[in-house]
Amino acid sequence: MKLENVVPWGRTLEEYQLMFNLNEKDKHKKILGCSDGPASFNAELTQMGGDIISIDPIYQFSKQQISDRIEHVRPIVMEQIIQNTDDYLWNKFSSPLHLERTRLSAMNHFLADYDKGKAEQRYVQGSLPELNFADKEFDLALCSHFLFLYEEHFSLQDHIQSITELVRVSKEVRIYPLLSLEGTQSNYLASIIDHFERLGTKVGLEEVSYEFQKGATTMLVILANE
Question: What local confidence, expressed as pLDDT, does residue 182 receive?
Fold first, then answer.
C-alpha cells in the first residue's frame, strides 16, 4: 500500500453511534473497528473505558506521515464535496465548512492518540479479507465506509470473503453504508444477503439514525452462527 493512494478522512464517536445504532451496552463490548482510518472513534471510546481494536492498512505509517497526507488531501476532498453538495443531506452538518471542521477535529483527536494507541495495540495494521485474530475474538465488528461503498474496486467474491472473515472473528457484524459512491444501492447487497442466508446465518437490514450521503439510512447486520 502506498500512502499517496490513501485518502484519510475520519469520523467521530457520535457518528459511529448513529451509523451503527450503538447503545450503552454495545459500547461495553469488545469491538473491532474495520477500516477506521483516522477516525476518533477508538480514542474517544477508549477514554470512556471501552475495549476496541481498529484495523487499517494506513497504520503502517507514522503519525507525521498520516498528518501530512491529511493536509494534502483535505482541500481535494472538500472541493469534491462542494462540487457535489446535492449528493449530501445538510442537516447534521450545516455547511461544508462545518463538515470540514468536524472532520479535522476528529482526525486531530486520532493523531493525538495514535502513538499511544499503537503502543497499546489498539491501532493494528491490517486489511480484509485476512485478519490476524482468533475465531470469535470480538463481540462486535463494525465496518464503516469501505465494503459496498467501493464496489467498483472490489468484486462480489471479495465482499463475500471479507464479510466471511468478519463473521469468523466476531459474534456480530454491522456494515454501513450500503450504497456505492454513486449513491445507489450496492449491486452486491442482494447476492450477499442470499449467500449468508443460505448458510443459515441470520442476516438483516436495520434503519440507522444517520444520513449524510443521501439515501444511506440502512446498515447490514449479520449474527454469527453459534
Answer: 86
Residue with the three cell numbers 482468533 = 134
The pLDDT score that the predictor gives to residue 6 is 74
Q: Are 38 and 66 in contact (CB under 8 A)?
A: yes
Each residue of 16-68: pLDDT tens digit? 999 999 999 999 999 999 999 999 999 999 999 999 999 999 999 999 999 99
Exposed/middle/buried for 170, CB within 10 Å: 0-12, 13-18, 19+?
buried
**What type of residue is 219?**
M
Domain ranges of the chain: 3-223
pLDDT at res. 3: 67
Cis peptide before 177 (omega within 30 of 0): yes
Chain position carrying cell 498520516 = 66
Sheet holding 140-144, edge to edge: 123-124, 51-55, 30-34, 140-144, 172-176, 218-223, 202-207
pLDDT (0 to 100) of residue 1: 66
**Which of the residues in the chain have pLDDT under 50?**
none
What pLDDT is stored for residue 204 in this prediction? Answer: 96
Q: Which of 216, 36, 57, 202 is nearest to 129 (CA)?
A: 57
Q: Which of 56, 45, 46 is nearest to 20 (CA)?
A: 45
Rounded Cα–Cα distance for residues 160 and 129 (Å): 9
| CA-to-CA separations, 134 to 167, 168, 171, in angstroms, rounded | 11, 8, 12
CATH architecture of residue range(s) 3-223: 3-Layer(aba) Sandwich (3.40)
